[in-house]
Structure formats: structure tokens, C-alpha cells
Amino acid sequence: MMKTMKKNMMILALWLLPLVASAFVGRVEIDGIWYNVTTKIQEAEVTYSVDDNGYRTYSYSGDIVIPSTVECDGTTCIVKSVGKSAFSGCANLTSVSVPNTVTVLGVGSFRLSGIETVHFSDSLKEIGDMAFVGCHQLKSLDIPSTVNSIGQYAFQDCFSLESAVLPDTVQVSMGLFRDCHNLKSVNIPNSLEYIPSEMFLGCDSLRAITIPNSVTTIYAMAFVNCGLESLVLPESVRTIWGFAFGCPRMKSLTLPNSLVTIESPYFMNCTDLMDVYCYKEEPIICDFTDKKYMTLHVPAAFIDLYKNHSVWKYFGNIVALEDEDESIPQCATPTICYENGTIKLSCATEGATIHSAITNPDTRSFVGNEVGLELTYHISAYATMDGYRKSDMVTDTLRLTGKVPKIEMPARMATD
Fold it and tell me: Is 292 helix (H, G, I), strand (E, B) or coil?
């Protein structure tokens, strides 16, 4: 009886042996790339490299081409993903080509690497949180149309990134392009329903952007310290969260009639803002920095509501949108000069009132016994007068070096 049982168990073990051998799970290095392999399901994931003692290394360098399949223990495994932190910290990495079999780039997969170019898989569906955080050499992104999800802070601190194209079907998360200081161009898809928090925070080279009419909500800090010079919000926007905009370069803002809620602190720190075009038929609670220097443009039928509103009435000038007739003469653009410690403003339109604003971005802290007196002042001015349209705005920069003040005049001078 016992002999029969032992014999049957040996037969069973021999029968299961090939199955156990074929179900390999573990890390392997194949042609210089490390993988997590599960032969039972014939799948592999690219992972980080290790040394002979099993300690992590950052040895990936140069141009990496990931194959679509790898052979392990006689089994062909399909490479389905780039795993968490796979290329993270690889400073000498230049480019990676991702095969069409890969559908996921894991959390932090390229974080703090030296990658300059990435060739995405045409089957890619998901880019994980912080996937490319701190990739300072990455210059452009053309994300394939198959991607439907991009995680939080995926491209934060990509200082060299100049342009990005987002696919039509994608949903994005907070901080997507945060502190991408060289970002100049972004294509936002028509399917996007909201602008997440911090999406463009610190993008100080981004001068213009088109928000599609699919967007209904703009979340907190979405454009704080962004370089936008003008912005038109589409008629789809209903809600703007607090401190969504803090754009010191912004000169023109258009608010749609669809707006229902703007949460505090509104549009503070938009210090260069001169013109607000508001199509709301009735005023809502909102506020701006230095309203007395701004012109508010509103529908003619509701101009009295704005002039008597507790907040909006403090705009320096309130005019009807319909009254901006090009046949009406325009005030001459003011000129700015510096004489004997005084900034002097003048306008060729006799009797015009000049409105100006001066900002100083050079507030800094110092360590040491000597501090050089180098200050920069940004000056903006425009002119108004009854019977005339408001002038174009002129901007100058005044630099004080501690010896002889020097003024840098703009390329566009005053014209009548």
C-alpha cells in the first residue's frame, strides 16, 4: 500500500515538473535590459537594473530600444509595461524607444533621468504619476492618441520642454506641467472637461493658450505664476476655483456669460491686467488687484449694474462692449522717460489722462557683507480721454545698478 502511494506521488511530481519549470517568476537580464518575467502568462515588464549583489544601479545609458518580446526559459514573453522607477535616476540615458506591445508606463518610470527623446508606443494607454518628473533634457512631447490617462505631476520640472500635444481622449491629473519653465506651446484637446489644479503652475514662458469649449471648470492654482499675456475663457466655463489665476504678465482677460461661480481669491496678482471683457449679464462676486488702473468692458444694457456694484464699480473705467467703435479716434500711446530720479510720462493727445503701474519683481534675500544695488522696475501705462478710445498700452523696463540708472525702451514706441 505504502509503496503504491509513494510510486503515485513520484509519478505526480514528475508530471508537474514541466509545469513548475514553465511558471518562472522573477528578474532576469536580457541583452542589457532587466525584466520582471512571468512565463506562465507569457508577460514581461521592464524594470530597474541591479548589480551582482542585488543592489539597484542606475546603469541604463545612451539609446535604449525595448524589444516587443523576450525569450526566458524557452518561453516567449510579451513586453507589456515599463515598471515603476525602471529608468529613474539614469542620468546618462538619452532616448528610449517603446514597442507597440507596451500599454503602461509605471509610476516614476523615467523620473530624474537624462532622457531627451522618448518614442512612445502606438498602443500606450496609461502614463503613471510622476513618470517624467525632473527630466530636464526632455524637449518635446507627442503623446499617441491611444493614451487615455496621464497621472499626477507626470511632466513636472521638465525645464527644457517647449511643446506638448495631448490626445483627444485623454484625462489629465493635477500638476501635469508644473514648473516647466520653458513650455511655450500646448494643445489642449476638445474632450477635456476641466483644467486640473497646478496644471500650468510656474509655466512662465507660456504666453498664450486656447481653452476648448468642452472645459467647464478651472481648478485652484491651475495658472498661478504662468506667463499668459491674454486669455479668453469659452462660454462653456461655469466655475473657477480660488487662486486659479495669478498671471503677472496678463494684460487682457475675457470672462464668458456662462460663469456661475468664481471663488476667492479670484484674479489676484494679475498685476499687469489692463482690460477685462466681461460678458456676464449680471455681476457676480469677483475681485482684481489694482482695479483702478483697469478698464472693464461689459454689455451696454447692464453697464449701470456694474457701475453700482460693490466690487466692480471700483474699476478705473467702465465702458460698454458695443461702444468700441473703430471710427472713434484713439488716444496716442504714452511715452516713458527717466530724468533726474523721476519717471516722466507724456501723451501726444492733449488733455489725456495717463494711467500707469510700476512693479518690482526683484525682491530678494542676500547673504554677505556687500549687496549690489541692482533693481528692475516694470512700467506699464495707457491714456484715456472723453471722446477717444483708450490708447494702446506701452511697457518699459527700468534698471537701477546703484550708479547710473539705465532705461531700456521697448521696440514699440508711441504713435499718434
Answer: helix
Which tens digits make up the pLDDT trace of 170-201? 999 999 999 999 999 999 999 899 999 999 99
Q: What is the reported pLDDT for 198? A: 97
Contacts for 88 with CB less than 8 Å, ≥ 6 apart: 48, 58, 108, 109, 110, 111, 112, 113
**Using CA atoms, how far apart are residues 198 and 220, in angstroms rounded to an integer?**
7
Q: What are phi and psi of 27, to 5 degrees?
A: -95, 135
* Cell reading at 330: 484713439
Q: Which residues of 299-308 are buried (b: 16+ CB within 10 A; e: fewer)?
A: beebbebbee
Per residue in 395-404, pLDDT (tens digit) is 787 776 654 4
Complete DSSP assignment for 111-132: TT----EEE--TT--EE-TTTT
21: helix, coil or strand? helix
Q: Indicate whether 325 pLDDT > 60.
A: no
Q: What is the pTM of this model?
A: 0.73
Alpha-carbon distance of 126 to 225, in angstroms, equals: 29
Cα–Cα dist 171/192, whole Å: 7
